[in-house]
Amino acid sequence: MVKSMRIRSKLRINRVSRFAEVCIHLIVGGFALACIIPFIFITIIAFTSADSLRLVGYSFFPVEWSLTSFQAAFDLGDTLWRSFLNSIIVTGVGTFISVLITILYAYGLFRRDLPFKKFFAFFIFFTMLFGGGLVPTVVTIRNLLNLGDTYAAMIVPMLLAPFHVIIMRTFFKTSIPESLIECASLDGSSEFRTLFTIVIPLAKPGIATVALLTAIGYWNDWFNAMLFVRERTLFPLQYLLMEMQLNIEFLRRNIATIGAANINLANLPSEGLRMALAVIIVVPIALAYPFFQRFIISGLTIGAIKE
Amino acid sequence: MKIFSSKNRRKLALLLMMLPGAAWLLLLRYVPMAGIVMAFQEYRPHPPNPTIFNNIRHSRFIGLDNFRFIFFGDRAWNMIRNTLVYNAVFIVLTTVFAIALAICVSELGKKFISKLYQTLMFFPFFISWVVASYFVFAFLDPTFGVLSDVRMWYLDPTGWPVILTASHLWKNLGFTCIIYVAAIAGIDQGMYEAAAIDGAPKWRQVWSITIPSIKPMIIIMFIMAVGRIFNADFGLFWQIPMNMGPLQRVTEVFDTYVFRIMQLPVPGAVGIATAAGLFQGVIGFICIMIANTIVRKVDNENAMF
Q1: What are phi and psi of A306, to 5 degrees?
Q2: Residues A8-37, mean pLDDT to the nearest whole number
C-alpha cells in the first residue's frame, strides 16, 4: 500500500501536492460559484410565490414555488414584447453595421499601400486618449444629428470601438499573408472583391470575436436609451427594467406629497416581476455564451498583444 | 489618363473603405471636441431659434468661471477622492487576485473541471449593471433581502465601499483572470520541467518563471488602468446603489457627478458639466502620457506607443 502510493507520487512529476490541489479547488471553485450564485438566486426568487416572500423573504429554499412572477411579466404583453423586439433590432442591426465598418477600417490599416495610413491610424487611436466628454457628445447626437427618440440613437453611438479595430487588424496581420493579396491583385481582382471573397472568409474567427463583443455591448446597453430615448415604445429591455425601478423609487420618495391614497400599491411592478424580467434578459446570454466564450477569449488575447 | 491607372484605382478603393469609419469618427468623436467651447461659456438656449449653432454663438463667454464651480464646496472634492480611491483599490485588488487565481487555474491543467471554472468565472462579464443591481438588491432589499436585518442598506452609507468593491471584483476579476490564464498557457513548458529536475519547488517556479514571463502583460494592463484612474465605471456607481440620495457621499464619482450636473434644470448647468468633463479628459490624457513615459524609461519594449 505504502509502496504503491510512493510510486504514484513519483509519477506525479512536478505537480502540486494533493493538499495544495484541494486548496486550489476550494479557492477557484469558490470564486467560480460566487460568480454564478447571484443569478441562480434571482431565478429562484422569480419562481417564488408571493406568500413565500412574505413568510421567509428572498430565500434559496422558498416555502412555495410559483409561476406568478413570470405570468405577471408576460401579462405586460405589448410592453414586454415590444422591448424584447427593440433589443433584438438594436442588437442585430447595430452589430451588422458595426462589424462591417470595423472590418473596413481595420483592413485599410492592415494594408501597407493605404494612402495617409499614419493619419488614419492616429485619427482612431487618438480617440482612446482624449475626447470631448459626455456633454458635448450628448449635445452633438441630440441637437446636431437630431437622433433623439430613434433606434439610431441607440445604434450610432456604439458603431466603432478602437479596441475592436485593434483586434481585427491584429487578426488580419496574423492570419492573412500579404503575398496572397498581391497574387489576387495580379490576377485582376478588385480591392473590394479581394476583401469580400478572400480575406473575410479567412478571418472568420476574428470577425466572430468582434461580432460577439459588439452584440453583447448592444444587448446590455441602457446608457444611450437613458440619454436619448423618452418614447416608451422604443425602450430596450435593459431600460424597461431600469425605468421600473426608477418609477418605484420616485413614488416611494414622494408618497408623502402625492398622498398614499392616490397610489395603488398593488399596481406597482412587484419585486418578483422585476426579478423575472432580469432573468428573461439574462437567459439568452446564459444559454449562448458557453459556446462562444472560446472566440472571445482568443480575440481578447490577440487584442492584448502589442504590435 | 494617369489618374485612372489601376494603381490609383486601388488606392481609391482602399480610401473608400476608410470612409464610413472616418466619417463616424469625425461626427461622433471630433465634432464633439469642438463643443468644448461650451466649457468657457454661460451656455443657454437662444429662444428665437435654438439650434446648437445659435445657442453657442449667442452664449456669453465667462472665461474659467465654470471651472470654479466644479471645485466649489465639499461635494466636488469628495467625488474626486471617491474616484481616485475606488480606482486605486480596484486596480491593486484586481491585479493581485487575478494573477493569483490565474496561477491556481493553470495548476489544474486542461481538465474538464478547469474549463468549467473558467466558464463560470466569465459569466459576470456578460451581465449588464442593470441586471447586476438586482443581484445586489436580492441581498440588500429592505423588506425581503437576505441581509435586510443588518441595516437599511439603501439609506445608510456604511458598508457601501465594500459592496461596490465586491461588485467590481465580481464583474471584472474572472475576465482579467482568464486573460492571464491565456498568457500563462503560452509559457514554454520546458522551463518548468528543467526547474523541476533541478529541484525547484512549485512556489519557486511561479516566482522565477511564471511571474517574469507575464510581467510585460501585467505592466501594460496596469498602465492602461492607471491612465484611466480619473474615469469611473458609470454603470457600477449609478446602478448598484440604485441612485439613492443618502448614499451619494460614498457613491458619487466623477462620471456620475458630470451626469448629475448636466441633468440639473438650472441655467448654466450645461457649461459647468462640460467644464467638469473637459477637466476629466485633460487630466486623463496627462495620466496616460505620464504612465507611458515612465514605462518607456524603465522598459522600452513595454511602452504602448
Answers
A1: -85, 145
A2: 80
Per residue in A46-65, pLDDT (tens digit) is 888 888 888 888 888 888 88
Please count the structural domains in chain B.
Answer: 2
HSE toward the beta carbon, residue B116, CA cutoff 13 A: 7
Same domain, B55 and B75: no
- State residue A165's pLDDT score: 94
Q: How many CB atoms are located within 10 Å of the residue A258 CB?
A: 12
Q: Say whether both B221 and B272 belong to one domain.
A: yes
Tens digits of per-residue pLDDT, B213-251? 998 888 888 877 888 899 999 999 999 988 887 888 899
Instruction: Check A14 against B105: CB less than 8 A apart.
Output: no
Mutate to test the interface with B, among A134, A158, A227, A265 (most CBs of B within 10 A): A134
CA dihedral sign, ordered B22, B27, B30, B31? positive
pLDDT score of B23 more than 90: yes
Nearest CA in chain B to A298: B182
Tell me the fold of A72-304. MetI-like fold (1.10.3720)
DSSP state of A48: B
Distant-in-sequence, close-in-space partners of B281: CB < 8 Å, separation ≥ 6: A130, A131, A132, A133
Q: What integer pLDDT is reported at residue A8 of this predicted model?
A: 44
Nearest to A249 among B38, B132, B242 (CB): B242
**Reported pTM:** 0.88
Complex prediction ipTM: 0.88
Return d(Cα B300, Cα B119) in angstroms, integer.
Answer: 36
Question: Which of A107, A129, A135 lies nearest to residue B274, judging by beta carbons?
Answer: A135
Q: Which among A134, A289, A300 is the nearest to B258, CB-wise?
A: A134
Domain boundary among B47, B63, B79: B63
**Mutation to test the A interface, candidates B128, B205, B264, most A Cβ within 10 Å:** B128
How many whole angstroms separate alpha carbon B249 and alpha carbon B237?
Answer: 12
- Chain A neighbors of B13, CB-CB under 8 A: 190-192
User: pLDDT above 70 covers what percent of chain A?
Assistant: 86
Does the distance separating the beta carbons of B280 and A133 come in below 8 Å? yes
Contact at 8 Å (CB) between B141 and B65? no
Q: Indicate whether B226 and B268 sit together in one domain.
A: yes
How do the domains of chain A map onto residue ranges?
2-66, 72-304
Record: contact B10-A191, CB cut-off 8 A:
yes
Q: Please list every residue in chain B whose beta carbon sits closer than 8 Å to the beta carbon of residue A221.
A: 128
Say yes or no: B211 and B96 in one domain: yes
Rounded mean pLDDT of A23-36? Answer: 93
pLDDT in tens, B56-90: 888 888 888 888 877 776 788 889 999 999 999 99
Whether residue B10 and residue A113 make contact (CB cut-off 8 A), yes or no, is yes
Which residue in the set B33, B136, B182 is minimally distant from A132, CB to CB? B33
Nearest CA in chain A to B274: A135
Task: Out of A211-215, B141-145, B177-181, B212-216, pick the least confident.
Answer: B141-145
Average pLDDT over residues A4-22: 63
* Contact in structure between B42 and B271 (CB atoms under 8 Å): yes
Instruction: Answer yes or no: do A216 and B117 touch at CB < 8 A.
Output: no
